[in-house]
Specification:
Aconitase, domain 4, globular, 7-stranded mixed beta sheet, 8 helices
Length: 207
């Protein structure tokens, strides 16, 4: 997966609370393979587009300068609902690298880490202030620095956020759980060889 270190980018505000994974990517697109042509167009499909495929001009990601946003600043309980990992895939396909929220759906939150997307949890009043600043200054940027665990608001104020050390290491190095485990491959092999020598009676015959 793509590593995450520090990002300064245009951020888009979304004020609606309890946006579930079915709104992020409707169920009819779940059989589409990750990375399929046009995958990014499935993001918020039913609120971004009319039935004929034309854009809804009132939706935030259809308006300049939010169209190229790489950060979403959202309201409470974003990503609730079903456990579909595709909700993160489609955000990634669109180019979103970080979601800042007061709270996130639990499974969605964990899926973000597994796909190189940084979830940032901050107090509700601070996130609301971010969204207000973004509406007042369309095109304003936010800086998310994972190494220092700080988010710099559109008005320049830094805010510290918490992140699990293991998840932080995953994102900084661009490795998921499997990749991190493979980093210990030589030590695992040494253990298996020593185990086979010292406890040969438990090693299956012919191994």
């Amino acid at each position: 997966m793509q590593a995450f270190t520090c990002l300064t980018a245009v951020a888009a505000p979304i004020d609606l609370a309890n946006i579930d994974t079915d709104r992020i990517i409707p169920a009819r697109f779940l059989r589409k393979p990750k990375g399929a042509p046009g995958y990014a167009s499935f993001l918020f499909r039913d609120v971004r587009f009319d039935a004929d495929g034309s854009e809804k001009p009132e939706f935030v990601l259809n308006r300049m300068p939010y169209r190229g946003a790489k950060i979403l600043v959202v309201a409470e309980n974003f990503g609730c609902g079903s456990s579909r990992e595709m909700a993160v895939w489609v955000l990634e396909a669109y180019g979103i690298r970080s979601v800042i929220a007061p709270s996130l759906g639990d499974i969605f939150h964990q899926n973000c880490y597994k796909n190189g997307l940084l979830p940032v949890i901050l107090p509700a009043n601070i996130v609301a202030a971010f969204r207000r600043q973004l509406r007042e200054r369309p095109g304003a940027t936010i800086t998310v620095d994972l190494d220092s665990q700080t988010v710099t608001a559109p008005n320049g104020t830094p805010h510290r956020f918490d992140v699990d050390p293991f998840r932080k290491e995953m994102l900084l190095t661009g490795r998921d759980e499997t990749g991190l485990t493979l980093g210990f491959e030589s030590r695992i092999r040494e253990f298996e060889e020593r185990h086979a020598r010292e406890m040969s009676w438990v090693v299956p015959a012919g191994r």
